[in-house]
Amino acid sequence: MHFAPRRHAYRMFALGVPLLGLVLATAVHAAPPGPSESSETAVQSASPGYYRLTLGDFTVTALYDGHTRIPQKILHGLGAADIEASLARAFLPAAAPLNTSVNAYLVEMDKNLVLVDAGAANCFGPTLGKLRHNIRAAGHRPEAVTTILITHMHGDHVCGLADEQGKMAFPNATVWAAKDEAAHWLGQDNAGGGSGATEVARAALAPYISAKKFKTFVPPEPILPGLLTVATPGHTPGHTGYLFTSRAQRLYIWGDIVHSQAIQFARPEVSLDFDHDPRQAVATRKETLADTAGKRLLVAGAHLPFPGIGHIRAEADGKYQWVPLEFSQQLPPPGLPGRQGQAAPLKPGP
């Protein structure tokens, strides 16, 4: 079956609903309400969305930018009955839009403070745009970020690069993206998947380009010690994952390999309207899932339920299961099962 790109549907990603009053328990780092505060006030106040873990000598902080909902009709490659069964298995309502988290990740590595993706800012409504608030809640300042790695240039990953005045929201950071991704969205001869999406990407990157603080790379070119870039094309032409390694402990931040954990782990053949090349996106997802499951890699996903960190378990018939990291779980030291030897690079993608 031939899949044609459905670029017009990108704007549908802007659909959202009022922010949920409660954040996943693993994200709660706020002090409990004092005795003078009413329970009603406590329920209506969302806790800061961040989750911190160690990775060898690195510290990784998952950051919650918010959530949005995508309609089921933009899914392709699976019948309505199978979608309903997948949602029922995940205890989700059959007819409702799919809730998807928008996550970014902050990695403290040596003298660098590295941010992977920058969130949606105000591009997609009030349920998103919490990233800078949660950076501060986690004890950091946007001004302290030195490096920003972009998985791809959809608005929910780059709008947060610019502040409300169109200036650099991270004034001391250099932004990096794959050369193919930059050519697609910023090149003069390419529409970048629709004029609206292109304008969003260009506006977000403009202050960094003007300040000569935007650079490109060609995967698997390394950017910093302990960081490998991995080509994962399909969702966008230059979609990229980032593999962080410290003392043989590894975390692979994969961007938009999966949008719906309830459906695409068990049925990786499912594509979405806003995949630039659906066939390529499906092939990349299948290869990535096989690779990460086989290597027992810890992975982090931009659209997995916050904090979006866990492992992939291979099951029968080309299906996979998402296994979230437990709140109390710490990465084992080098030498224990699953963390032995040198870090093998991921496959560079099909």
Name of the level-1 CATH class of one domain: Alpha Beta
Order of helices and strands: HEEEHEEHEHEHHEEEEEHEEE
Q: Averaging pLDDT over every residue, what do you get?
A: 83
> Based on CA inertia axes, which overall geometry fits?
globular
Write a compact overview of the structure shown.
The chain contains seven helices and 15 strands.
What would you note in describing this structure?
By secondary structure, the chain is an alpha/beta fold. It has a domain at 50-248: Ribonuclease Z/Hydroxyacylglutathione hydrolase-like (Metallo-beta-lactamase, Chain A). Helices cover 19% and strands 24% of the residues. It has seven helices and 15 strands. It has helices spanning 39-44, 80-89, 131-137, 155-158, 179-186, 195-210, 278-294; strands spanning 50-55, 58-70, 75-76, 98-109, 112-116, 147-149, 174-178, 214-217, 227-231, 240-246, 249-253, 271-272, 298-300, 309-314, 320-324. It has a seven-stranded mixed sheet with strand order 1-2-4-5-6-7-8. The radius of gyration is 19 Å and the shape is globular. The model is unreliable at 1-43 and 331-345 (pLDDT under 50).
